[in-house]
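Predicting holo structure, adenosine-5'-diphosphate bound.
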Amino acid sequence: MNIEIQLNEKQLKAYELLTDYTNGITEVLYGGGARGGKSWLGCLWQILRRISLPGSVGFIARREFSRLTDTTMVTFFEVLGDLGLTGYGYYRTAPSQGEPGNSYFFPNGSMIYFRYIDWDPQDPNYDRFGSYSLTDMFLDEAQEIDEKPVSVLRGRFSLLRGKNADGTEWVTIPKAMYSCNPKRNWIYNDFVKPAREGLLAKFRAFIKALPKDNPYLEPAYLENLMRADKVTVQRLVYGNFEYEDDPAVLFDFDALRDLFYNEHIEEVGGKSCSADLAMKGHDHFVIGSWTGNVCKIVLDKDYSTGREIERDLKNVMLREAIPRSLTIVDADGMGAYLESYLEGIKEFHGGNPPLDKRYQNLRAECYFKLAELVNGRRLRVICNEAQRERIIDELGALKQAHIDNDVGKLDVIKKDEWKKLLGGKSPDYADMLMMAMYFRRTKVTAGAQVSVQVRRTE
Ligand SMILES: Nc1ncnc2c1ncn2[C@@H]1O[C@H](COP(=O)(O)OP(=O)(O)O)[C@@H](O)[C@H]1O
Ligand SMILES: [Mg+2]
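Done. Tokens:
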């Protein structure tokens, strides 16, 4: 069989990575913008793999079943048509292993499962994928999919050798292709960010593909997309992962970048200090020395003993002339211990009641205050580049909790959930900045008192 296909430059690059069995690359993330030819490439790769590896099993999935059938599978049949292979194999709509699903069977014994990958309360551990024996998979719009089922599925790559028609054996290595649009979750933590920093794992690759990379795109589509709101244009046209269109995100990305350049904010005003402590070694010990609304990170260590923390903090307070009553440290670390040595400093208890009753607790109140000051370009942080990256990362990932609920109190997501968005790291710099808001909260007054007299009309 002789098939000729044309791929755009980015598609070709990804295709080569996906078909080279000696490069050690098992996961390829492709995309980052709309209409870069993601679904088309994924389907093409799956079809050609099935044809060239007789008896192999592929897996094509999207989060939702209806999206899978309405979009990805439509592209699958389009690609079969483009290859002149319409009617080549056969397609069966049948529930399999207790789930709705469709499969495509090739004449050489290969097959492809089409599955949805949404979370199902009946199957919290994704056991429904536990018995597949796969050769490879293509997850379309992988940013919608949770990390857990992806790792369950990666554990199912067991069908890695088989027989060719001439009796020889084929052997391959596991390969997964994920297509994506920008989102800050595992695709960002595992691929996009490490790739930018040159720290990408050897078995992974990220190929950024944008609308401009797809010569088959209708110009009218791009013109129309350019007229969308700023966040959409940044994400889908330019593939900017740092722009979130999630209304729950608290910090504006441009404001976060400005935070380090707001030179109109002068170093004048009262002195204060906030510190995130770390004794166990897995967090950072960070001290911010504040003059008015300018924060200088004056200390940043991976690990410290209680004695060191006490000495470092004392030194900073002395050197920068910061009063004890305007020094705040987190109580969960070792605030209580410190307080007995540095009497008069404040301990931060995030669960304490807020000044303003609209907030769930003190922590929420302080994070909202921080967002207000950052988004309003009313703070400046002086620090090194690595710290700046962390601060943008941490604050950029913070979200408001229960945003759909308009009767509850204002709150931010739980620390565990936030850590997950940060690839397991703890938001120490953010906590340091947030605690300083303790001194910047505003008292709410009850407003003017009005007395009303109600009398019955005679
Ligand atoms: N290599 C290709 N050859 C022919 N058509 C292509 C190719 N790549 C993409 N296309 C076309 O470009 C359009 C957008 O591609 P698609 O894969 O759906 O984009 P995405 O999934 O990135 O949004 C589709 O209509 C598809 O037919
Ligand atoms: Mg697509």
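The pocket of adenosine-5'-diphosphate (ligand 1) is lined by residues 6-8, 11, 34-40, 75, 78, 82, 214, 216 (CB under 6 Å).
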